[in-house]
Amino acid sequence: MTDGQKNRLQAVLVGVIMGSTSDWETMEHTAKTLEQLGVPFETRVVSAHRTPDLLFEYASSAERRGIEVIIAGAGGAAHLPGMTASKTVLPVLGVPVESKALKGLDSLLSIAQMPGGIPVGTLAIGKAGAINAALLAAAILGNQHREIREALRKFREEQTAKVLATPDPAVAATMNTVIGGRDASPESVKIETKRKKHG
Ligand code: RP5
C-alpha cells in the first residue's frame, strides 16, 4: 500500500450508529468485520427517539465530514435508519436488531418497509445482518477505494478456502470445538473426566 493510500484510509469512511448501547452486542460484528477489512469507521449511539436533534446533526453533517456510507442498527420501532436516510443522500444500510418481544421482526419491517423515495438498504436480522452490512459497505466503497475492493476479494477467497478445506462436516464440527488450543470436543471431555476420576 502506498503512503497516499494509507493517508486516505485514515479518514473515517463509514459511520456505524445504533439506537442504544444495548445494540452493541449485535453491532460489534459490523465493527469487527470493518476492522478485518481495514475500513476506517466510527461508532456512535444516536437514538431517533431519545436524541432526535443529535440524529439530525449526525446525518446532515456526515457527508461534509467525509463519511461515505452510514450503517444504522436499531431494534423495535426502528426509526433510526429511515430518519437518517431522510437527512442525507449517502447510502444508509439498516441492521434490524433482534428485539425481545418480536424477535426482530418488528425491527426488520420498520427498516425495510420505507415508502418510495427514501431508500434504506436493509440487511438480515441480528449478527448475520451486522456482518453483511459491513461487507456491503465495503463493496460500495470498493468502487472508489481499490484497496478496500481488494480486501473484500481476499475476505471472499479466504472464506471459500476455509469451506473447501473441511468438506467433511463431522471433522469441521470437531475443529470448531477446539477452543484456545484446547480440544473441547465431546470425546476429549469424556477422556479428561475419566482421567480426573482416576486421579
Ligand atoms: C431502540 O430501542 C434501540 O435501537 C434498541 O434496539 C431498542 C431498545 O433500547 P434500550 O431500551 O435497550 O436502550 O431504540
Quick overview:
With 199 residues, the protein is of the alpha/beta class. It has helices at 3-10, 24-37, 52-61, 80-86, 105-112, 127-141, 146-165, 169-176, 186-197, and strands spanning 14-18, 41-45, 69-75, 92-97, 121-122, 178-179, 182-183.
Descriptive account of the structure:
- The chain is of the alpha/beta class and 199 residues long.
- It contains nine helices and seven strands.
- It has helices at residues 3-10, 24-37, 52-61, 80-86, 105-112, 127-141, 146-165, 169-176, 186-197, and strands at 14-18, 41-45, 69-75, 92-97, 121-122, 178-179, 182-183.
- A five-stranded parallel sheet has the order 2-1-3-4-5, sandwiched between helices. A two-stranded antiparallel sheet has the order 6-7.
- α4 (80-86) links the parallel β3 and β4.
- α3 (52-61) crosses α4 and α6 (127-141) packs across α7.
- The radius of gyration is 20 Å and the shape is globular.
